[in-house]
Amino acid sequence: MNNKKSIKDQARIYLSKYEEYAQYYIQALEELQVGLWFWDVENNVTNVNEQWAHNLGYTKQELGETCLETCRTLIHPDDYELMMTNIDACLDKKQDSYRITVRMLHKDGHYVHLQIYGNVIKKG
């Protein structure tokens, strides 16, 4: 039984360190003003951080709940195929990541250039 308790204690220590390091990463990303966009493919739900919304002139609250369709409506029509080709390659397991520059529609009506780094976090 001591062994099980020891494993639980080790797990708690590991999770504590993971949470601590995660906070450092989050702080660094916020200081770098990196916009983050996560996509849960199975449920077609995306989650963006405040900086991602800010890059397009919005607040996260203004954007509300987002999905891939949100991105489709904001990306320049000429850049949509490039983005989808790269996303499809990741979904088809032909590549694990991509880096592209696209134009996205700002709230004020002009396009801004954004570098997008896509990375597969969890494979099904």
Question: What features would you describe in this structure?
Answer:
- The chain is an alpha+beta fold.
- 50% of the residues lie in helices and 21% in strands.
- The protein contains five helices and four strands; from the N terminus they run H-E-E-H-H-H-H-E-E.
- It has helices at 2-31, 50-55, 60-63, 68-74, 77-91, and strands at 37-40, 45-48, 97-105, 111-119.
- It has a two-stranded antiparallel ribbon with strand order 1-2. The chain has a two-stranded antiparallel ribbon with strand order 3-4.
Provide a brief overview of the structure.
The protein is α+β, with helices and mostly antiparallel strands.
Low-confidence parts: none
Global mean pLDDT: 87
User: Can you write the helix and strand succession as a string?
Assistant: HEEHHHHEE
Structural class call reads: alpha+beta
Intertermini distance: 35 Å
Sheet with most strands: strand arrangement:
1-2
Query: What gyration radius follows from the Cα positions, in whole Å?
Result: 18 Å
The global form is globular
Number of helices: 5
**Helix residue percentage:** 40-55%
Main sheet specs:
2 strands, antiparallel
Number of strands: 4
Beta content comes to 15-25%
Layout of helices and strands:
Elements (H helix, E strand, L loop, with lengths): L1 H30 L5 E4 L4 E4 L1 H6 L4 H4 L4 H7 L2 H15 L5 E9 L5 E9 L5
Antiparallel strand pairs: 1-2, 3-4
List keywords for this structure.
alpha+beta; two-stranded antiparallel ribbon
